[in-house]
Each structure stands twice: as C-alpha cells, then as structure tokens.
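Please check this one:

***
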Amino acid sequence: MENIPAEVVALILEIVPDIRSLWALVRASPHVHRIFRDEYREHILHIIIAREIGPILMGEALAALRSSRFTSTQKVNGEDVEVPIRGLPKTEALEWTESYQDVINVANVSPPPEDMLLLWELHKDVKVMADLFVQETLPIFLQMMKGIGEPETELAICTLEDYSTIEKQRLFRAIYRFVIFGNLFAPSSTDVCDDEDLCEYFLCRFTIWQVEEISCINDFIRNKILLKWQEMEDNEFKRLAADPELWAADPRPNPPTSRWRADFFSKESKSRHFKDMQANFATLSIKDLVAVFEAKDVLLEELVKTRTSAYQGARSPFLDAALDVDPGAIPIVIGGVEYEFRGEVECPVEDMLAFEGDDLASANRSWFWANKSSLGDMYVSPSSPKWESDRAFEGFRRFGYVFLDYSRVENWRRGE
C-alpha cells in the first residue's frame, strides 16, 4: 500500500461500501491515512456518507440535522444568549415546513462539507433505531410466513442487515421524518400547533403510503417506550423478591424526590398519566430515545427518572392524534389529476394505482395488498372507532408491512 499513488488510493477509498470499511482501510496504513487526511478527506467522506444515507434521502437527512439546531434568544446573566431548543412556535414551525417541502423525495441534495460528519452522527442513531425496529418486526413476519396451523417456534434473530437496500431506505425515510416532526413540534412553548395543523402542514406533504411508513415507526416507538417501562417494573419486582425486607419499607418515603418509583408504577399513575407520559417520551430527540431503548437496569431507571421528573403533566402534541385527523387535502396525483380532498377519492386503490416494482417513489406491493378500501383510510389509526370490527392494520404494522419488498411478501401472498 505504501507505494500506491495518491490518486489510486482515492479511487479505492471511493468504492468502499460504508463508513466502517472506510475507517478500517484508512487505519490499516499510515500512507493511506496521510493521503486521506491531507488531500481527500472531504471528497471521500461526502461520497461514502451519501452512499450510506442514500441519494434520495440526503435531503431528508439534512433537514433532520437542521431541525435539530433550533435556538431561542434568552437572557443569561443579563446577556442575550442563543439557547438550543426543540419545538418551534406555531408560526415558525409552519414556515419551516415550507422550506422542507423543497427536499422531500428530491435526489442528490448536496450538503455543505462542514455538515457531513454531523450527518453521519445523526445517521448512526437512525440506523440504531432501524436495527431495533427490524429486530422486533421482521421475526414476526417470518413466523407468519410459516402458515396457519404450523407449530410456532422461537422467533428468528434478525438485524438491519436482513433488510434489502430498498427496505432500509424506506425505513430510514420514515425515521428521519419522525425525527423532523419531533424537532419541529416537541412542546416547548404555549404557541403549539393543534392536531389539524400537524396533519395539514406536515403529514399532508407526503403520499399516503409514506404517511403509513411514519405510522409504523410511531407505533413501534410508542410500544417500545411501554416495553422499557415494563422492563423497569420487572426489575423492581425482582429486587423486591430478592430482599423480602423491602416489602416492609414505607411505600411513601421521604424526601419526596425518592418517591418517584412508587408513584411511577402506582395504579393511579398508570390509569391517569401513562398515556400522556408516553406521548411526552415520544417527543425525545432520537439520540435520547436510542439511549433509553438501549439502557438496562440502573442506567435505564436513571434516564426514565430524569425524564419523568421533567414531565409537567401537559398534553404533548404528537403523531397519534395528528394521524387520526381526517386531512383536508391528500397530496396525491392520479392520472395527472391532483385530488385535494378525500371525498373526491372513493374508488379502490388498485383501480387507480398499479404496483410496477420496488422503488422509493411508489408504494410497495404489500401496501396495495393490505389497503383494500379507499385511499384515505390509511390515515385512520386502528384505535379509532372505525376499526372496532376490523383491526387488521394494527397487525400489519406489527411486522412493518409497508417497508417490505415484493420478493419478500410474494410467497406469503400466494399462500393466503
């Protein structure tokens, strides 16, 4: 390697598949490291990070990064200081979504060089969340493919690498949009958007199958929060079982700050506050969500304790309610005609749209197959009264159907 010309080294570095491989190659040789550091660092990083994120998603990733940089001018020791915030006042949030519109589903957006490593740091968190999603959802799908009546076995162990490139891109897209939504609308001021605003100014910028992608991620994150709380409660029961003397301890100890565990798992807390606290947790930044989802034991308890201590009992505007809103406009063009109101679209989806292959610009085959009713129905949450007699979509979301390739679902479809 030490005698290879710099131009050839650069060409080799340009074709490595991902950042991990790039770092391994750069660290393997002082000669390669020197060439990379001194001559080609920005050029190579842009190519590899763009390859990892995907050319169509680069604009989404950059929008997610920029939405994490909101600040507010506040007085600190008598001086005006720019303080980082999450969640913009309503007017500013809606103005920001107008500029965001310019990068939705647009390929080859070029970020400034100074943002490339920051984009990679963000994408690492997105990949962790995506990996957690695949770990929980793909085994459910694989179990279902075995057919009704066959004996159940242990769920397979899956990772993000079991997804195809297109499946990963669909999943990354949904997570980036979840991140942007949280950065824009996390409750930080009294001037917040209502559910109709959230739907009209954010969700209605996407085609309805892409809204369903966001719904799947929202369901997963909300459920994962409850699972982590259940994990904490299980740990508490194990602690009590291991030391019977703890059962005699005062359930309302002093000082008040030490009561949070008993309060958190109380029947009253679960019945009155868990739903709102769950929504509040879902407004965490992706980095904080990943930290909570990966934490165990004492660290998990400390992270949850910190967040619940900051919870003020206020309602958090978030995706669940916005997804249940009947949107005034559907951003979809059929046969060259733009339909603005759901009432205009009444015929079945498959009479208007046709599956032509797996790509990011169109719905996947399982979305067509699952969506047997009108276009707008995919906006409706399974928890809505409409679905009391048919909760099928809830099951579909459990295995991430809207992300899956045609080749993965075709065998299952043939066996229905």
In short: Residues 6-53 form one domain. The chain has three domains: 6-53, 64-321, 324-414. The mean pLDDT is 76. The CA atoms of residues 366 and 409 lie 7 Å apart.
